[in-house]
Every structure is written in structure tokens, then in C-alpha cells.
Task: structure prediction
Amino acid sequence: MKTQLKPLILALSLATLMACNANTKSNSSDLLITETVIETNLKDKKPEIKVALLLDTSNSMDGLIDQAKAQLWKIVNELSYAKCKDENPNLKIALYEYGNDNLNAEEGYLRQVIAFSDDLDEISKSLFSLTTNGGNEYCGKVIKTALNQLDWGESKDDLKLIFIAGNETYTQGNVNYKDASKLAHQNDVTVNTIFCGDYNQGISILWKEGADLTHGNYMAINHNEATVHVASPYDDKILELNEKLNKTYVAYGSAGRKKNGNAGRTRF
Result:
């Protein structure tokens, strides 16, 4: 059966159009992002986009963990270009891993890797350093935990999103996914699901329903498809310019000195 990939750009298009008015819904399926300009009536407070990334790090993800990380980071990258009129909203990202047997069983085999942060370098480092082990993937539990632990704020005009990626049955665990979705909906948080496998299989094990319950988007990633690097004649020049850029940074304080050690790593 041919695996289908619903373009991530669609979810981002729908999401960014709501970034300054979370109560506005769109049914369009043909939107593409170039530079998203969003109308807003906010005058005193800069709008925020808050995104929680929930990644399955169980052993069943061994063949596709890299693809899942890449797709999640693509989402972050696209949202970083969203605009409300002439200004960029404050983009804050949180990261959780779940389904890893190295994690506390009593807490549902999940862990908050990083709370809401606008430090994209640190988020990137944390995301791409995650590894797989074991296999108890509780989607409802990790969604509910992210909703309760994170500071989502009370503004109705902020965009609040969860992206959960995994490849096992969506209904596992003692927290019903419908209850978790209801809690998300009550808090104006949209849950988007990314099934790492066959598109129709993800539908059959309720990943699409998990998204539909909060008017989110369902996507799928090709199972065990290798990550491909396409060589470009500009690669060497980009690396050269990146090295020159890194030399312009000035480290301040202990945190700055620590980050200066990561200066050789390109964010995007």
C-alpha cells in the first residue's frame, strides 16, 4: 500500500493564519506559506505562538526517529517566519519525549525535556540528541501532562499548538485520548498528530481522530524512509559564511560562554 504524506506546510498555513485570533477557523486546504501576514487588533501585547513537541522515543521508532525529528524541526522553522502585520510573534517551543523505558514508569514513561523557551539553538540541540529505548507509548498521558505542566497563558488571541509524533496505537495508557483532547480544546490548544508510518494505518489506529477532536491536522511520514541529503554547489560557500558569522558572536556571562561552544552548529 502506498504511503501518503500530507504536507506539513498545510498544517502550518492553517495554524499561522490563526496566530492572532485563535477563535478563527479555516477550512481551506490549498494554502501555502510564503510570508504569512496576519491581521490583529492587539495593541498592547505582542502575540505569542506556543508549541509543544511530543516525540515517541520507543524502540519501534528506530527506523524513523530521524525523519520525525526533521519534520518537527521543519514545523518550528516555518512558524518562526509567521507574522502579525509587520512584527513576528513571540515563538516559544516546549519538548517532551515519551514511550522510552529509561523514563519513570510511574510518570507514564515520559519526560519534559525543555519547557517553553525561545532559545531555538537549545531546543534544536535537545531535540536532535534524543535516542530510542523500550516501548510504552501513552499518547493521552503525554498530551495531558504537557497541558497541565506548561504555562500556556490565558490569552484567547495566542496560538497554542501541540504536535505529537509516534507510530503505535493512539489509545494506549490509562489516560483516555478523548479526555486529553477535551482538556486541550477547553484550553484553546490544537492537537496535530504525525503518524510515523502508513497514512491509512494511522487512521485505523485513531491518530487522525486524535487530531480531529481538536480541529487539528493529521499527517504521516513515510515508514523507514532514509533521510536524504541532496548535495548543492553552494554547500561549501554556506559553510564558509557560517564560520564567518560565528566569529561575530560575543559571549556574555556563563550562559553565553556555554552557547559559544555551540557556535559551529548551524541552527537551520
Observations:
- The CA atoms of residues 57 and 131 lie 6 Å apart.
- The mean pLDDT is 80.
- Residues 65-79 form the longest helix (15 residues).
- The beta strands are 37-38, 48-56, 83-84, 90-98, 110-117, 159-166, 190-196, 218-221.
